[in-house]
Amino acid sequence: MCGIAGVFAPNLDPTQREQAVTRMIRAQHHRGPDDQGLYSQGPITIGMARLAIIDPANGRQPMHSADGRFTIVFNGAIYNYRELQAELRAAGWPFRTNCDTEVLLAAYALRGAACLPQLRGMFAFAVWDKEKQTLFAARGPLGIKPLYYARLPHGGLLFGSELNVLLASGLVEREIDLSAVGEYLARFSIPAPRTLYQGLQNLPPGHCLEVLPNGRLKTEAWWTMPLPAQPAVRSLNYSDFVRGLRAQLEDTIRAHQVADVPVGAFLSGGMDSSAIVGLMARTGASQLKTFSLIFEEPGYSEAKSARMAAKTFGTEHHEFLLTGAQLAQDLPRILATFDQPTGDGINTFYASQMARAGGVKVALSGLGGDELFGSYPSFRDLPRLNSLLPWWRKLPQGLQKRIVVGLRSRTGARALKLADFLASARDLHELASLQRRVLPETVRLSLLSPEARAHAERLGPHHPLLDQFAGDLIGADAFQIISAWELRTYMADVLLRDSDVFSMAHSLELRVPFVDPVLLGWLWPQPAHFKRDPHFPKRALADAVTDVVPTAIRHRQKKGFALPFGLWMRRELRPFLDETFSNSSLANCPWFDTAAVQTNWHEFLAGTDTRAWSRVWTIAVLIALVNRPSPPRS
After folding, report:
1. Which CATH number is 224-557 given?
2. What sign for the dihedral angle of Cα 281, 283, 286, 288?
3. What letters, b where the CB count within 10 A reaches 16 and e where it falls short, cover 475-504?
4. How remote is the C-alpha of 209 from its chain's centroid?
5. What is the pLDDT at residue 631?
6. CA 293 to CA 296: how far, in whole Å?
7. What does the DSSP assignment read for 116-154?
8. How far is the C-alpha of 392 from the C-alpha of 382, rounded, in Å?
9. Each residue of 174-187: pLDDT tens digit?
10. Helical spans, DSSP H, in 369-516
């Protein structure tokens, strides 16, 4: 696990390149405090900050092939590196280390981009080919590790593991993209490839790029969601499915524990994290450490369930009591870690801080279980709504318009969201593309200045992936369609992105066994009714670990992990929010309608909607991020 950085710029003085990359490495010291490295040759300078996990003594980067032709910088972990190492050694590669970095280097050197589907793990890497004078970079299929890049004004490319790293180079400007502001207000996040800043790009999951000697840049997808037609691996009955699922779960848990340093786990006490920790214990993990956040506020803390699980699995359990006062005190430090705005992730910041202080460098998380086993409301609600769309379209347009206007005249979030569905969706894909919107369309547009509103209206309400997914998922069933949308949007753009930023802020490598293409590939073609029981969320997962996870946890009602944010925003966080929504603060955000934003804040304070906090916090984070000082360039 590392932070990587590089500049390909034939027209830039080598000294300028090296100074820029040095600044970029320094800006991501938190991602890799164990080692640093820099390589400069011809038009390329690349560097890294290393968190040593596999073969700590020998895995230094940038790493070179024995003949000096290829040089790699790599962020992530390749879990099947030992199997690949045996294959590549047989093919003639003279290994000098037992590190997954060298395995990745060898795989690319011998197989080129064809090696990508053979990699099991999480990765973002770049390889310089000195002979061909080309730079190749790729990102893993599901987007666990990030890769940002920017074209340089006079030719060339800049890349790094965080947007803050690109800005620290001194080669690009921090200029807000008005279209990105509208996208963020819609979804808690900014969908790749766009970022908050003009000209700075987010390489989408499952994509690669190549810079040719003439400076031409090519990007393309090397991985798409699995196709549904794989009858050979379909289970014949539910019992067969559960047995197969158990085998797959044990396989992914074993793979994700590959490390030469201590490995722990987040344990919330819910089904997903309990299954992960229980299987870690069952598959041989010893002296296992687990970590939970707890709260003072009734109804939020899951301490009792987490303690039960930890006792059952025999772990060394650690808890951190997070209060509103603690969060208010830490906010400047937390905001400093952001490279893009987000309405989520605070829990990961504190859980990662606790895990690192507790003596582990790697922690496993239960993220991804909801997307794979259909426990989000979208799996229930969207098919129902989709079945009504044909009847809706038969209504006269005038009547449709009156119904939508009537719904938008109400104050409840559900009515406003239904209005957006009815106004803009024609099929399940379009419903799914709207599902994760945070602010209703009328509210979103009202918060924007005329210029920013014009950008938002031009892009429309749908997710930019709509056309691609409608083509990639032809023939998929409803469960597969919704699962794919949840995996690629909310999970990739919010959960995984935040997990990377906030775990790496504490030099912790966070691994997500459910977010495994091998597991997903096995699950994808299985009958939907095996994966999801509408009366028993995650029944399949519960049945697969019935001998591992306590009955009380397997049969407990699903409860999404939530912080008492709505309470804290009216109490301990109130001074921060009052300042954030002040005239002086909003003066630096000309793409907002100041009066509308302030009205939104005051309505929250006067209201009782327990879910409204997320919409207000989303706006506040963006304003605070914009008012944050630019990173130093010295």
Report:
1. 3.40.50.620
2. negative
3. ebeebbbbbbbbbbbbbbbbbbbbbbbbbb
4. 20
5. 53
6. 11
7. GGG--EEEEEEEEETTTTEEEEEE-TT-SS--EEEE-TT
8. 15
9. 999 999 999 999 98
10. 369-373, 377-394, 397-408, 413-424, 428-435, 441-447, 450-459, 466-472, 478-486, 497-504
Read off the DSSP letter of residue 465. Answer: T
Cα 327 to chain center, whole Å?
Answer: 22
Q: What residue ranges of the chain are covered by domains with CATH 3.40.50.620?
A: 224-557
For 416-425, b/e burial (b = at least 16 CB within 10 A) is: bbbbbbbbbb
pLDDT digits (tens, 9 = 90+) for 479-535: 999 999 999 999 999 999 999 999 999 999 999 999 999 999 999 999 999 999 998
Is 2-221 in CATH node 3.60.20.10?
A: yes
Distance between start and end Cα atoms, the chain:
26
Q: What is the Cα Rg of the chain in Å?
A: 24
Sign of torsion over alpha carbons 489, 490, 492, 498: positive
pLDDT at position 559, please? 61
> How far is the C-alpha of 58 from the C-alpha of 48, rounded, in Å?
15
Question: What's the length of the chain?
Answer: 634
Give dist(CA 94, CA 38) in Å, integer: 23
Residue ranges, CATH 3.60.20.10, the chain: 2-221
pLDDT at residue 554, rounded to an integer = 85
Alpha-carbon distance of 189 to 499, in angstroms, equals 13
Task: Judge contact between 47 and 69, C-beta under 8 A.
Answer: no
Q: CA-to-CA distance for 358 and 619, rounded, in angstroms?
A: 34
Q: How many CB atoms lie within 10 A of CB 414?
A: 10
This prediction has a pTM of 0.95
By the 10 Å C-beta count (0-12 exposed, 13-18 middle, 19+ buried), 335 is classed as middle
d(CA 371, CA 486): 6
Quick check: 428 and 384 in contact, CB under 8 A?
Answer: no
Q: Which residues of the chain have pLDDT under 50?
A: 633-634
CA atoms within 13 A on the CB side of 116: 25
DSSP secondary structure, 186-227, as one string: HHSS--TT--SBTTEEEPPTTEEEEE-TT--EEEEES--PPP
- Position 156: which residue type? G
Please name the amino acid found at residue 522.
W
Q: How many helices (H) and strands (E) does the chain have?
A: 29, 17
Pairwise CA distance, residues 208 & 359, whole Å:
35
| Residue written as token pair 């772990």 | 315
- Pairwise CA distance, residues 279 & 302, whole Å: 20
